[in-house]
Amino acid sequence: MGKLKAPSIDPNVSRYFSRKELIDIINKRFDGSIPKEHNLAEMENEELVALIGDEMYIISYVTETWTREPREASNKKPMSKGRVEPEKPKADDKKDTKTGK
To answer: How many CB atoms are located within 10 Å of the residue 58 CB?
Structure first.
């Protein structure tokens, strides 16, 4: 019996991730020690996607990011619950009634 091979990742996936995110995924894949033959600074985003190699690393990264978002949002300052009134123009900002400027 043949060994199952993971399907390659569509290079268009690179459109949905920043370069930093792709490198974060690669760091996770290689446990922080990327082999020296891979110079990430010189690689195109499509090459980075190919280096990731398995969709499971992308899925893992996205789910970790999603699980962190609620916690990060709860640490932010709460928004006011009241209605936000538009800012009133200052006395200096009055428009000329003749020209509208």
So the answer is: 20
Name the amino acid, one letter, at 50.
A
Between CA 41 and CA 3, with CA 49 as vertex, the angle to 5 degrees is 130
Structural domain boundaries enclosing 26: 11-74
Task: Name the DSSP letter for residue 97.
Answer: T
**pLDDT tens digits for range 8-43:** 788 788 899 999 999 999 999 999 888 889 899 999
The domain tally of the chain equals 1
Taking the model in full, what pTM does it have? 0.60
The helix or strand, by DSSP H or E, that contains position 90, with its residue range, turns out to be none
- Cα 95 from chain centroid (whole Å): 43
